[in-house]
Amino acid sequence: MRNILLTISYDGTDFCGWQRQDHDNGEVTRTVQGEIETALEKIHKQKTTLYGSGRTDSGVHALGQAANFFSPIDSMPVLNYQRALNAFLPEDIRIMDVKEVSEAFNARFNATSRSYRYFISFGNSCSANQSRYVWHVKNYTPNLQRLNELASCLRGELDCQSFAASGDQSLSTCRYLDNAYFFMEKDLFGRQLLVFEIEANAFLWKMVRTITGTLINLDKNNASPDAMKKILEAKDRTQAGVTAPSTGLFLYKINFDGIRRHV
To answer: Which residues, at least 6 apart from 20, have a Cβ–Cβ distance to it below 8 Å?
Structure first.
């Protein structure tokens, strides 16, 4: 058996998240994992389990999700999996890269950090081509310096309870954050987008969206530079702001070459 690692991009708009959902009544829920496993079954002529680096929620996109599976086919060149899978997959999922890894490799447990990017448009209107992939914040002009001052507390080992959604089942709310910062970039039409990038060993349920919504709200209200730090230290979700919508969130990259920290 060969262990194959995939790098996957997808438009999450029409998916109920990453994780396969099995129903006793036979009802099919459209998920990214489910679609790829269906394609693998067509190639292998048998059910094949796909092991993802982590879950994304309904509506969340990915540029660099990682997942591995075990192939019973020894004769097929590994690069052929990209072409074969893309032939069977819907257009809103694309396999961007494939490579063979050691038998012991697991995309979830070997990942050392996950990077997300959140895209925000601002101004009076949002272009039609962007509406599925950004959070449009009306009547807002971002203050990049203030945003980065607010986000500067999001470094190192932190208790992120203030940003955990109700119902999160994690055993611990502590996470190790490598970085969190804002920058501007231009879209295809030359308009400015505000981008928030955050990297951590792992994330709580809806944590990135809650952090994003909180920071934008603080900036809009001209908050003091230590306002985010106070919310973090409160360990109280009611002190944080709104949860930003899923539309602007992308799983950007899975890193395997850093320091392995706690889950």
So the answer is: 31, 33, 34, 37
Q: What is the pTM of this model?
A: 0.95
Measured at the alpha carbon of residue 1, what is the angle toward residues 256 and 36, in degrees to the nearest 5? 65
Is the CA virtual torsion 118, 121, 127, 128 positive or negative? positive
Distance CA 213, CA 64 (A): 23
- The SS3 assignment for 229 reads helix
Contact 6, 98 (CB under 8 A): yes
HSE (side-chain half, CA atoms, 13 Å) at 73: 17
Q: What percent of the chain has pLDDT over 90?
A: 84
DSSP state of 188: T
Q: Which residues contact 26 (CB under 8 A, 6 or more apart)?
A: none
- The values of phi and psi at residue 40, to 5°, are -65, -35
Give the residue numbers annotated as catalytic, written as ranges. Answer: 57
The whole-number pLDDT of residue 263 equals 60
pLDDT attached to residue 28: 76
Q: Which two tokens stand for residue 103?
A: 């038998």
- Cα(23)–Cα(126) distance, rounded to whole angstroms? 38
